[in-house]
């Protein structure tokens, strides 16, 4: 009986070994075939990863600050100086309003007379608006600005006015600039002649264009809501008079 069991065990062991041998041969044959096929196709069985060594990222351009044109006002503690250059002929022809010629021609005889720019500093100027002076001219000493809660020099007259009230040219003049800044809002710069220049700020609905000639009392625009620099002072017109580029007391020249 024992001999039969041993013989049966041996037969099964031989069978198992034979099956394992056959499986090993089949697997080896498959591997050889795969390698042979890859070699024939000339393909690499591994994924090619492109090398990045030596590749530099493109340098990003750095932002550059615009160069100052040198014409901006530098009086940091003077009212009305916020990025308003009040320069003459600092704009391109293409920037002018298309109605400039129409406005100029509509002035008729007044425009022709204004071309002479006859103001000489002795004639009296018209008030741009009829109102009380809220803040007086003061360049020799500082005065208190309620909205800013600080003392500053003031190159202009801050004249009270009602919103939408017309603002008139103080004399015959040529418009040399129409612009805007955060402190005095929309403004118009007028060349009166003989080195005198007037600036009217805190405007809305500006009615004139650069290079236009205007007669005395021509409407330049209308009183706007005050900027954040004059919210406590209230509605006003910023009126600055200069002679040869230096501010002068406009009260000495007004009617």
TrEMBL record:
Domain of life where this protein originates: Bacteria
Chain segments carrying region Disordered: 66-107
Alphabetical list of InterPro entries matching this protein: Cell_wall_metabolism_enzyme (IPR050570), Dup_hybrid_motif (IPR011055), M23ase_b-sheet_dom (IPR016047)
Ranges for domain M23ase beta-sheet core: 159-249
Compositional bias per record (Basic and acidic residues), positions renumbered to this chain: 90-100
Pfam family, one: Peptidase_M23
Biased composition (Polar residues): 79-89
GO molecular function: metalloendopeptidase activity
Name of the protein described by the UniProt record: M23 family peptidase
């Amino acid at each position: 009986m024992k001999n039969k069991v041993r013989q049966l065990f041996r037969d099964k062991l031989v069978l198992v070994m034979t099956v394992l041998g056959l499986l090993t041969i089949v697997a080896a044959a498959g591997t050889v075939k795969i390698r042979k096929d890859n070699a024939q196709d000339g393909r690499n069985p591994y994924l090619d990863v492109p090398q990045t060594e030596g590749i530099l990222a493109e340098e990003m351009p750095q932002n550059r600050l615009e160069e100052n044109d040198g014409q901006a006002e530098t009086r940091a503690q003077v009212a009305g100086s916020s990025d308003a250059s009040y320069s003459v002929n600092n704009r391109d022809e293409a920037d002018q309003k298309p109605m400039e010629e129409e406005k100029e021609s509509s002035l008729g005889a007044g425009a022709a007379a204004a071309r002479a720019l006859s103001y000489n500093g002795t004639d009296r100027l018209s008030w741009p608006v009829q109102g009380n002076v809220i803040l007086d001219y003061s360049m020799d000493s500082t005065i208190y600005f309620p909205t800013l809660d600080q003392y500053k020099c003031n190159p202009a007259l801050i004249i009270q006015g009602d919103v939408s009230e017309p603002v008139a040219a103080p004399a015959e003049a040529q418009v040399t600039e129409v612009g805007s800044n955060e402190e005095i809002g929309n403004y118009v710069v007028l060349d009166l002649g003989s080195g005198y220049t007037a600036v009217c700020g805190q405007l809305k609905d500006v009615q004139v264009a650069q290079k236009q000639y205007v007669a005395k009392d021509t409407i330049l625009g209308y009183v706007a809501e005050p900027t954040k620099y004059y919210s406590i002072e209230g509605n006003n017109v910023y009126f600055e008079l200069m002679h040869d580029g230096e501010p002068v007391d406009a009260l000495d020249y007004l009617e």
